[in-house]
């Protein structure tokens, strides 16, 4: 995993640090009995106990959150023209696979912020780009 993080961050000019990777910390963590590290299906109990001395419990006990991009706004603002071009292309995919009226309705509702259709629009865009590159006709 460290290799993947390193390669991914270097690719985009980012720095990532792994603060608990020092071999002494890892050796110490490995020496602690399992039953002290996990309590009531909660992991990182030792780390959380230490953090609660310095941070409010409301910060330490937060549920895990994924990292997501603001796709909703990206599609409308930064990528809006590009999305318009792709969705309004004269691809034959609209004759056989996708209903152009429905796709346009999804996009219009999204642009006007009547609905958040970001994931379905993104999937349609990716499909259209893939189809354009791989169709055999």
Q: Give the N-terminus to C-terminus distance in angstroms.
A: 42 Å
Runs with pLDDT <50, length 5+? none
Number of strands: 0
Order of helices and strands: HHHHHHHHHH
Number of alpha- plus pi-helical segments? 10
What is the molecular shape?
Answer: elongated
- How much is the average pLDDT? 86
Estimate what percentage of residues fall within beta strands.
under 5%
Report the biggest beta sheet as strand number plus sense, adding barrel if it closes.
none
Structural class: mainly alpha
Helical amount: 55-70%
Gyration radius from CA atoms, angstroms? 24 Å
Overall description:
The protein has 137 residues and is mainly alpha-helical. It has helices at residues 2-11, 23-31, 34-37, 45-51, 57-60, 71-76, 80-87, 93-96, 100-111, 118-134. The longest helix is centred in the C-terminal third of the chain and has 17 residues, at 118-134. The model has no long low-confidence stretch (mean pLDDT 86).
